[in-house]
Amino acid sequence: MDIETRDDEKKKAPKQAESKNGFLQNLIESIFKSSNPEAEKKRKLKAIAKSFSKTKYHNFYKTSTIEALAPFAKLFYDIYKIVAPAQTMFKLNDNPTLYKRQIISYSLSEKQVELLNHFDANKLIEMSRQVPFEQLEEKIQEELSLFSNEYDPERIAKTENIYKAYLHFKDFCVFDYFLMLKKFDSKIPENNFTVAPAFDKVNAEYIVEDLKDFISVAYPIIDESIVWTDLFDFITQTRGSEVINPAIWKKVIAKIKAIRSSGAFELMIRHISRNPSYASEVKFHMESIVEPYIESVEIETNDNLSKISHQQKQSKTNSLCDQIFGTTEIKNLRYYASYANEPLIKKELNTFDYTDALNYLKAFLLEYVKKDIREFFDVVVIRGQWDATLSAPMSNAYQELLKTSDEITNFDNELAEEGSLGIKIKTLLPKTAHDPGAENIINRVVEDSNETAKGFIVTSTQNLVTIGKTLKQLIEDYMKQKPVLVHNWRELERYLDHPMKEFSVNIYKKIYLFVQLMQQYLNG
């Protein structure tokens, strides 16, 4: 064996021994590490410190003394200077709803802006005075569909992107850089960058929570899907000026990308908090703003149409009541009445739906059927000489109306507190809070009552239509020189205190108006 070979073996021997010792050391550590978690934690923290020292941001933090250093503060100071104008903008107008509306408005097409003017409440009222409501409603529904269709996938994506960018941008800008920087320089002025700060090192434990918060707002801005130019165009157009130069913003994003890629901040947090397993968690949840907006436009517009419909219906109802009864204040029913709905509404139960209509029907039966129509019936139908087959429908309808009047009174009394239906509601109402069965019984009583009320209204309206049709024929017959239906008109006139024609026409008008009134409720 020559000298060189022996020298090589001598050189290899220590390395082999060292390798063997290292292997044995690792083996021993792997066997016993679970029994000494603190030692394992120290080993991991030491490895973290070593990894951090190899990053380009090693001058941000001194691992041996757990201190955050001036270059770390300088990074945040540089960002603070860049975002300060935007931070001021957000602080002066901290209204997320306003910005959401502005983004939506910014994204609308010219056609959508035009259609929105049609959906305005005052514009709808104005149009409702010019065209029938049914025609207006049909037109507006078509326009709502057009408005929604203008939001094609491209427009939706751009709108949602601007909103997403806005949320990330706002969160990043309003981060409290000043509060964290004061920990490095207590004399640093807020929003004043004319004098360079004198940053000193600080105990890193003082800023570790700030660093966690910063990660949560910084990492989202590097989302590759965000088109930042759309956001800055929106801000410039809405605000009238630029808050951040897009080129400078790109540099900020590049800096955050580099930091995240290095893992430096996570390594710092793990080492400072002595938590080797710490992992930054960036949570972000953004709801769509386009779909809720379209829905809100449709809901608001339909609500306005409903109000117009209700107002028109109420106005027509009041006009008909005034023409029929000479007043809109009519109260003939005591229990099937609107006031009885108050406790039902509080308990979210079914309510009495035909209280007004049935009240008007009872009033008409009392004031006209039992007075004017009865007088006409007694004279023309009873004393008149005309074919019984022609008079029978009118006679039957009249008798049915008299019968219905009594039935309505009985029905109303059943809903009194001591009545067969009212006592059920009174007894079960307090139990509804804890007894679903009580709710079901009350709802069934109310529902059956509504069916009964509607039955009275439908059959009475039909009977009045029958009387009205026959009455119209009789008026036309009376006007003829030679009547063919009733042969003794002149004789019948002697039994009335007022002219036959005016009396008959007035009854016909009242019936016609009242049928219209009932149709307001039956068709609604």
List keywords for this structure.
single chain, 524 residues, mainly alpha, 3-stranded antiparallel beta sheet, 3 strands, 70% helix, disordered N terminus
What does this structure look like?
- This protein has 524 residues and is mostly helical.
- Helices cover 70% and strands 1% of the residues.
- Strands 1-2-3 form a three-stranded antiparallel beta sheet.
- A hairpin with a 4-residue loop joins strand 1 (61-62) and strand 2 (67-68).
- Helix 4 (96-107) runs antiparallel to helix 8, helix 8 packs across helix 11 (228-239) and helix 16 (355-383) packs antiparallel against helix 21.
- The longest helix is centred in the C-terminal third of the chain and has 44 residues, at 436-479.
- It is elongated.
- The model is unreliable at 1-15 (pLDDT under 50).
Helix content: over 70%
Query: How many β strands by DSSP?
Result: 3
Mean pLDDT: 91
As laid out across the biggest beta sheet, the strand order is: 1-2-3
Rg, rounded, reads 43 Å
Using the alpha-carbon principal axes, give the shape: elongated
